[in-house]
Write a structure and sequence with these properties.
This protein is an alpha/beta fold. It contains 19 helices and 27 strands. The chain has four domains: about 130 residues, Polyphosphate kinase N-terminal domain (Methane Monooxygenase Hydroxylase, Chain G, domain 1, Up-down Bundle); about 140 residues, polyphosphate kinase like, CATH 3.30.1840; about 160 residues, Endonuclease Chain A (Endonuclease, Chain A), CATH 3.30.870.10; about 200 residues, Endonuclease Chain A (Endonuclease, Chain A, 2-Layer Sandwich).
Length: about 725
């Protein structure tokens, strides 16, 4: 077997879905960190629940579809869809058990010590609380509920995706009554949906000395469920929830109106195949059997929950009034030193490229870029891609205003941004109504790149101003996600930006690109050529380094090239937040590859790529991870960093990320992750350090970085696995 063939060995790869579950363990581990305030720890439990829901609705659903279709092809790790589903169910059951063990044994006792109590069972209410709950049910809840019994004349209802429900077994008190004619003296099934229009976390009277006491809406309904079935005895009642296949699939070539087709598919999302059933762990076996049969779920798809089902409600507790001592002091994004109050952005960009780092620096300049363009009489056109935007997006408002002011406004709205489809349809219609030219991209491809172009008339020429970023044009997530971006008016970037939008709106491929590298046609080969160049340098005895930061790595061809590079002696440092199908520490294959994952207050989202290039140091940023979907099935943009001042800052960012031993997890040779060792080292938390740097940076960026000699850590430190 040739060396290159050896790199394809399935044992050298981790399954994508199982790697994701490992990431969820890292997120959950943050909720166990005693150095984090209790309300912040609750957030991490909530995040794992939310992530798990999406994982089932999309990834597990996709595998179920493959299994039903008889698809037998093995994945990168040599597993069929059926084998993957078996392994996933085993791994997720363990994750959920760990999640509720953390909730019950660690977080709830700590919360009670701080005077906050969640009463999880209505039997635990005292007399005052019980009376309050009964009144609340009668006045607020009862009018909203619709109980549904199942019998010969009433079929099993369609239970909606992700809704919380209460299932009950009931028995007629008077089977001979006219209302219940035909009923026999046997148990019948009934269900009632817990209304999502009401808050789930209900404050109730507290005991002396407590800050807050809550109970859950489902417990209030369960306590009073007999009032919904007056002619029946309620034998038992338990909360449950189902997860359905929510992946949108349709033939774009056959869809004459993409917007209408997606709207139609969104409705179908509520009624897809059931792929997970969660139910209280003490549920009556007869009740569970009925649910399992009617919903057609297998034993391994049933999750018996020891606690409240769906822990996403914990996120609601984060903002509790009077509890500032129980959460981290929020970081306030700082102003970029290049951009003072009331700065004319176009004038400032003319002086040189501007580098932005979010959330350490405010996202306001990106919003202001569009706002200023909307009212500038010299601006002729604005073009922008939108993938995910906030609920009341100021960028959407600015684009609409620009169109109303007579600017030529072109907006690509990606309708297929998963779980944001409905939101994006609303914005697309609003923009069209304002007079914007709205396009929906190329058939079969998601448009995932982040680019905005402003065309401005200046003296006797036209100048094109461009913003390129690693994250979405979303002012809300920009406070939570780490991303980078640049402003430039370099003509080469402006020409390429125009070509991108012409390609998206008119299907015209440019003959060549000046600076941008665009997927799905050019990006994969460009990355491979950059890796191969480091391999060639290493074989010639030259220093060779690759540093890459991204969300996920699961592309086989990229991994094969990284293995080849490692075997040739290239030192490779990967900072990968989530999925990583590459394995480290394989003899002769990946000893020179080091993988860390940083899970902290902010979600690591930026994509940065560094190639030593025999000392020339090529640095790129972009919107794409090293995944097949990003390289082959999306419109993505990779852009080079050419300004030496900005390059120095990015090398510093990578350096600090690789030094992190506070929030970093290191991949071990067996594929597991453990906390980065602090033995004999000063404590470094990258996110914390970047926050401090943003607050103390001098007013002029050049004073800090221009002309600075910068030697990155990977050029002189041996970061070998310490296991």
């Amino acid at each position: 077997m040739s060396k290159k063939e050896q790199f394809k060995n399935p044992t050298f790869y981790d399954n994508r879905e199982l790697s994701w579950i490992k990431f969820e363990h890292r997120v959950l581990d943050e909720s166990k960190d005693k150095n984090i305030p209790i309300l912040d720890r609750l957030k991490f439990v909530s995040i794992t629940s939310s992530n798990l829901d999406e994982f089932f609705m999309v990834r597990v659903a996709s595998l179920k579809d493959m299994e039903h279709a008889g698809y037998k092809k093995k994945d990168i790790a040599g597993m069929t869809p059926t084998k993957q589903l078996q392994e996933i169910n085993t791994a997720v059951h363990a994750l959920v058990e760990k999640q509720y063990h953390t909730y019950n044994r660690s977080l709830m006792p700590l919360l009670r010590k701080q005077g906050i109590n969640i009463i999880g069972a209505h039997e635990d209410l005292n007399e005052e609380q019980s009376d309050f709950v009964d009144r609340y049910f009668q006045e607020q809840v009862y009018p909203v509920l619709t109980p549904m019994a199942v019998d010969a004349s009433r079929p099993f209802p369609l239970v909606r995706n992700k809704t919380l429900n209460i299932a009950a077994l009931i028995q007629s008190k008077n089977p001979d009554s006219k209302l219940q004619q035909g009923s026999r003296q046997e148990l019948e099934f009934a269900t009632v949906q817990v209304p999502s229009v009401l808050p789930r976390l209900i404050p109730i009277p507290s005991a002396q000395g407590e800050r807050y006491t809550f109970t859950l809406l489902e417990q209030i309904i369960e306590k009073n469920i007999d009032k919904l079935f007056l002619n029946y005895d309620v034998v038992c009642a338990y909360p449950y929830r189902i997860m359905r296949n929510a992946d949108l699939s349709f033939d774009e070539d056959e869809a004459s109106d993409l917007l209408k087709e997606i709207q139609k598919q969104l409705v179908k999302r509520q009624w897809g195949e059931v792929i997970r059933l969660e139910i209280e762990h003490k549920a009556d076996k007869r009740l569970l059997k009925t649910l399992a049969e009617k919903l057609e779920v297998r034993e391994e798809e049933i999750y018996r929950i020891n606690g409240p089902i769906d822990l996403t409600f914990l996120m609601k507790m984060y903002g509790l009034a009077g509890c500032d001592d129980l959460r981290e002091k929020p970081f306030v994004p700082q102003k970029n030193p290049r951009i003072a109050e009331d700065t004319n952005l176009f004038t400032e960009i003319k002086k040189g490229d501007i580098f932005l780092t979010h959330p350490y620096e405010t996202f306001d300049p990106v919003v202001d870029f569009i706002k200023q363009a909307a009212v500038d009489p010299d601006v002729l056109a604005i073009k922008q891609t939108l993938y995910r935007v906030s609920g009341n997006s100021p960028i959407i408002a600015a684009l609409a205003k620009a169109a109303e002011n007579g600017k030529q406004v072109t907006v690509l709205v990606e309708l297929k941004a998963r779980f944001d489809e409905e939101n994006n349809i609303v914005w697309a219609k609003k923009l069209e109504k304002a007079g914007c030219h709205v396009i929906y991209g190329l058939v079969g491809l998601k448009t995932h790149c982040k680019i905005a172009l402003v065309v401005r008339r200046e003296e006797d020429s036209i100048t094109r101003y461009v913003h390129l970023g690693t994250g979405n044009y979303n002012d809300s997530t920009a406070k939570l996600y780490t991303d980078c971006g640049i402003f430039t008016c370099a003509e080469s970037f402006g020409e390429d930006a125009t070509a991108v939008f012409n390609m998206l709106s008119g299907y015209s491929e440019p003959a060549r690109w000046n600076k941008l590298i665009v997927a799905p046609i050019w990006l994969r080969n460009h990355f491979i050529s950059l890796i191969q160049r480091e391999i060639a340098n290493a074989k010639e005895g030259k220093p060779a380094y690759i540093v890459a930061k991204m969300n996920s790595l699961c592309d086989r061809e990229i991994i094969e090239n990284l293995y080849e590079a490692s075997a040739a002696g290239v030192q490779i440092y990967l900072v990968i937040r989530g999925i990583c199908c590459l394995r480290t520490g394989i003899d002769g294959i990946s000893e020179n590859i080091h993988v860390t994952s940083i899970v902290g207050t902010f979600l690591e989202h930026s994509r940065i790529f560094y190639f030593y290039n025999d000392g020339q140091e090529d640095i790129y940023m972009g919107s794409a991870d090293w995944m097949p979907r990003n390289l082959d099935r999306r419109v993505e943009i990779l852009f080079p960093i050419e300004d030496e001042t900005i390059k120095a800052r990015i090398k510093h960012i990578l350096d600090v990320l690789l030094k992190d031993n506070l929030k970093a997890y290191v991949m071990r040779a067996d594929g597991t992750y453990s906390r980065s060792s602090r033995r004999g080292k000063a404590t470094v938390g990258a996110q914390m350090q970047f926050c401090k740097e943003a607050m103390v940076r001098p007013q002029k960026e050049e004073q800090t970085w221009k002309g600075r000699r910068f030697i990155p850590v990977w050029a002189f430190e041996d970061e070998k696995d310490e296991s």
